[in-house]
Amino acid sequence: MSDNQSTVSVERDGAIAWLTLDRPDQINAINLRMRSELPAVLETLEGDDTIRVIVLRGAGDRGFCAGADIKEFSKVGPLVEERRLRRQSPWVGAFDRVSKPLVAAIHGFCLGGGLEMALACDIRLAAPDAVFGLPEVNLGVIPGYGGTQRLSRLVGMGHAQDLIMTGRRIDAGEALSLGLVTRLEASRDALTESARGLALNLAAKPPAAMACAKEAVRAGWDMDITRGLAFERDLFTFLSATEDRLEAAAAFREKRAPSFTGR
Ligand code: COA
Questions:
Q1: Active-site residue numbers?
Q2: Ligand 1: does its nearest atom lie under 6 Å from the Cβ of 29?
Q3: N or C end of the chain: smaller count of CB under 10 Å?
């Protein structure tokens, strides 16, 4: 890939956006350009009412993403300045600003920042050749795109410490058993098919209910149970006043397929 080409590509398939990390020669390593292009694309898709689900995947045979571009690692400047720059540009936070379902379809290497991006998605599917790991300690750092926080919340502190402190790689079977992915497909083709089927399924659902389900679960991560239950009640009340809720009930009564508008 030449330097002029974009690091991400988007293919629209009805209400599904296939968002592809597109640096296959470098196993889709996250360079500076990807760190600015990816949030911009996510923002565009979030604002596009015709898109209801986003599927993230990696281009090429080698994998989903091999993490931060190590070739761009350079000498650090004054630490105060470095810290300020990092706080200003939490690019992976762009995933948290997406209210639509985010599906990660993972094949091959899914390492470092690649795994952290996958962790920022809602549902993770894997091909049998998928390999996962957070190898940052081997490079003298720690996961810096949310890995230390999201992985432990997802799989528990013990498994997270095992993976983060050893930097070891695990295969797709172990990832499934940990709950790091929730679906393991039989082949790469099956992964694509399954991701598409899942995306179609999610795209057909009432968008506001999708967004609130996502928000309730994600925001609840940071809440105690009492506040979480109150938050859930508020979102439920909000949804009970939507046109799509009435449409769903009418369609059930009239024995027809519902048609949701997002209102
Ligand atoms: N940053 C930049 N380039 C990367 C990269 C990364 N994180 N991961 C892979 N690449 C590049 C390689 O430099 C190589 O490019 P080249 O052909 O121009 O030399 C190409 O992708 C293929 O990788 P290669 O290492 O030759 O393949 P491999 O099968 O021998 O090993 C990995 C694959 C993923 C095990 C190995 O590339 C690796 O360990 N990558 C780094 C993973 C990592 O530590 N990520 C976290 C960063 S914080």
A1: 116, 136
A2: yes
A3: C
Give pLDDT tens digits along the chain (263 positions): 445 679 999 999 999 999 999 999 999 999 999 999 999 999 999 999 999 999 999 999 999 999 999 998 777 778 887 777 777 677 899 999 999 999 999 999 999 999 999 999 999 999 999 999 999 999 999 999 999 999 999 999 999 999 999 999 999 999 999 999 999 999 999 999 999 999 999 999 999 999 999 999 999 999 999 999 999 999 999 999 999 999 999 999 999 999 999 89
Nearest CA to ligand 1 atom 44: 135
> Do the bridges between strand 16-21 and strand 8-13 make them parallel or antiparallel, or are there none, so unpaired?
antiparallel
Q: Looking at the domain that runs over 8-203, which CATH code has it been given? A: 3.90.226.10
Kindly give the number of the ligand 1 atom that is closest to the alpha carbon of 135. 44
Whether 111 lines ligand 1, by a CB cut-off of 6 Å, is: yes
Closest residue by Cα to atom 14, ligand 1, is 26
Please tell me the total number of residues recorded for the chain in this structure: 263
**Cα(107)–Cα(61) distance, integer angstroms:** 8
Options 1.10.3470, 1.10.12, 1.10.533, 3.30.1450; CATH for 207-254 is 1.10.12
Q: Is 130 exposed, middle or buried (0-12, 13-18, 19+ CB in 10 A)?
A: buried
In eight-state DSSP terms, residue 33 is H
Cα–ligand 1 centroid distance for 66 (angstroms): 6
